[in-house]
Amino acid sequence: MSISVLLLTLNEEANLPACLAAVDWCDDVVVLDSFSTDATVSVAERLGARVFQRKFDHFAGQRNHALDQIRFKHDWVLHLDADEVVTSALYAEMLRVTGEGRFDAFRIPSKTMLFGRWLRYSGMYPSYQVRLGHRERLRFKQVGHGQREDLPAERVGTLIEPYLHYSFSKGLTEWFEKHNRYATDEARETAKAIAEGHGIDWLGLLAGERTRRRRALKGLSFRLPFRPTLRFLYMYLLRRGFLDGRAGFAYCRLLSVYESLIVLKLHELRIGQGPESVGNASTGRP
């Protein structure tokens, strides 16, 4: 059983070599580029990837477009971003589970890296995203700034081995720019949920299924006062982020700043300045 790779890019010439080197086992790497202005396309082609381009709308739109419009060589597709690296152990596990045929897709944990260190505690390990799926059965829906699988929970399995996520590979300036866009999307999603009367998934807070519990906790957090401070205390103390040393302290502070941006943008929406005043969600980028 072989696996294709779908890689979303925008100005990723610096990250591509390491990402593609880690999937040198794959004979079908597809890059869907959002019209990069650097050497992303030429680097991808030089390293053996098939390159297509599409204007970015959101993550779910990009992934679904690729699954619907691009012919993949293999039935199973691994969805990656350019700042993510697949380990040999993860590859071996993916080969095993895709050959079993028990599920339509799989959640994969990730290890967040900062200052050359794995954020074991403050990085909320293990947190999961559905990244491996059958090309005909897995589709995505956009939620906030990210995508979520459009599949029943019982059709989704969970892997043990993680991929490595170098989310700071382009430096802090790029991280802040990206999370400023993400905060806009999260504020809109929260405002929409509140306006439509969506309640808190109280049972989900106690659910045994980790992904549902995490999403329920996120929904609750949007309604709590002092969110930035609470986020820092939760990550640094309750999640023992202090054990990650300097990198853990820095990461917890960055997440607190991110929460502050969401709160402020949500306030802008509530006082009627409108979505356009905080930026167009469609300008978000990978």
Characteristic terms for this protein:
286 residues; 10-stranded mixed β-sheet; two-stranded antiparallel sheet; 8 helices; disordered C terminus
Kindly describe this structure.
Helices cover about 40% and strands about 20% of the residues. The chain contains eight helices and twelve strands. It has helices at about 15-20, 40-45, 60-70, 90-100, 170-195, 210-220, 225-240, 245-270; strands spanning about 5-10, 30-35, 50-55, 75-80, 85, 105-115, 115-120, 125-135, 140-145, 145-150, 155-160, 165. Helix 5 crosses helix 8 (about 245-270). The radius of gyration is 19 Å and the shape is globular. The relative contact order is 0.13.
User: Which outline best applies?
Assistant: globular
Q: For the record, give the distance between the C-alpha atoms at the N and C termini, rounded to a whole number.
A: 29 Å
Question: What percent of residues adopt helix (DSSP H or I)?
Answer: 25-40%
Low-confidence stretches: 277-284
SSE-based structural type: alpha/beta
Percent of sequence in beta strands: 15-25%
Residue-averaged pLDDT: 88
The tally of strands reads: 12
Q: Count of DSSP helices?
A: 8
